[in-house]
């Protein structure tokens, strides 16, 4: 059962590995989010490869791909689409926006205003759009990969909690080391490997792999371990708002997908512990006193993992 999922994941990882150097964990977590039906927020400084990761993933999947470049003057209708009057036919017609696709790249999402950012909320949460009292289902699979630069503050709008909570994972690429950066120069010396990527999985196949991943066995003890981790974020004395039940469900499904990618039909505590920082840190809001003491959500999640007993 999981052998098919693992084989397909290896093909996609090999595809992305032709472009990105030394980012095996990030690529694996990205695929886990795809197979668990979650959205991804890639947050890092410019020039690291955030957009390249999204384009390499989209190129590996035979799905409808759309890119939205977020800017301060972008309007919600530029994302969702509009009803316009066609003078030739004498009727109103709907012009679909770029969100009506299977893989959507929201590039530099924090450069758009909160009003425009909110245009993604219904689609990401419910896989549908409501335009002029008409509900439009989004195609399946549906995946949003958003990128943002956390360093630059001028001309940006921080994502609200409701928007952040709809992202299953928040990933960081980080700088490559010396050998990896030299390897990158060699790969791009004569051609662009991104242009040579061929699709290795179709939309219907992704839906099938998602269904297979949900059949991965999770022991009741590990299910309770996941719940206790999320509960601990809400009970931490320095946390104003802990992770939501959506985070619990996301971690649960993502751990199944991660185990399937690794060729196992059961989840281990390692998958849950690995996912916790990526699935919970962006959902935790610290109290003002904790922020003044320069505490970070990543540090809080680390303390939570150390405080919750690991089942053996």
TrEMBL record:
Keywords: ATP-binding, Nucleotide-binding. One of its GO terms (molecular function) is ATP hydrolysis activity. Pathway: Porphyrin-containing compound metabolism. It comes from the Eukaryota. Its EC number is 6.6.1.1. Residues 36-177 form the AAA+ ATPase domain. It is an enzyme of class 6 (ligase). Gene3D superfamilies: Magnesium chelatase subunit I, C-Terminal domain, P-loop containing nucleotide triphosphate hydrolases. InterPro entries: AAA+_ATPase, ATPase_AAA-3, CbbQ/NirQ/NorQ/GpvN, ChlI/MoxR_AAA_lid, P-loop_NTPase. PANTHER family: METHANOL DEHYDROGENASE REGULATOR (PTHR42759:SF5), MOXR FAMILY PROTEIN (PTHR42759). This is magnesium chelatase. It comes from Geodia barretti.
């Amino acid at each position: 059962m999981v052998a098919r999922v693992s084989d397909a994941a290896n093909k996609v990882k090999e595809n992305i590995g032709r472009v990105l150097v030394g980012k095996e964990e990030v690529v694996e977590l990205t695929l886990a989010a795809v197979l668990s039906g979650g959205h991804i927020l890639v947050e890092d400084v410019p020039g690291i490869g955030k957009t390249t990761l999204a384009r390499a993933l989209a190129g590996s999947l035979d799905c409808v791909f759309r890119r939205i470049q977020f800017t301060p003057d972008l309007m919600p209708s530029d994302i969702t689409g509009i009803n316009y009057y066609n003078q030739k036919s004498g009727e109103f017609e709907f012009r679909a926006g770029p969100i009506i696709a299977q893989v959507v790249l929201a590039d530099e999402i924090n450069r758009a205003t909160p009003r425009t950012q909110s245009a993604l909320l219904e689609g990401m949460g419910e896989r549908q759009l409501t335009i002029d009292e008409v509900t439009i289902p989004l195609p399946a699979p549906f995946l949003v990969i958003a990128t943002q630069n956390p360093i630059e503050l001028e001309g940006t709008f921080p994502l609200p909690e409701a928007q952040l909570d709809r992202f299953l994972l928040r990933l960081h690429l980080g700088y490559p080391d010396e050998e990896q950066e030299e390897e990158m120069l060699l790969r791009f010396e004569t051609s662009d490997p991104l242009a040579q990527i061929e699709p290795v999985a179709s939309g219907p196949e992704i839906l099938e792999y998602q269904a297979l991943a949900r059949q991965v066995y999770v022991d009741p003890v590990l299910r309770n371990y996941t719940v206790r981790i999320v509960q601990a974020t809400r009970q931490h004395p320095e946390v104003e708002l802990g992770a939501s039940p959506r985070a619990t469900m996301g971690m649960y499904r993502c751990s199944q997908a991660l185990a399937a990618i690794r060729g196992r039909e059961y989840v281990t505590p390692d998958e849950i512990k690995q996912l916790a920082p990526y699935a919970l840190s962006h959902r935790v809001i610290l109290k003002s006193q904790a922020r003044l003491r320069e505490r970070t959500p990543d540090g809080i999640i680390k303390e939570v993992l150390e405080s919750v007993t690991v089942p053996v």
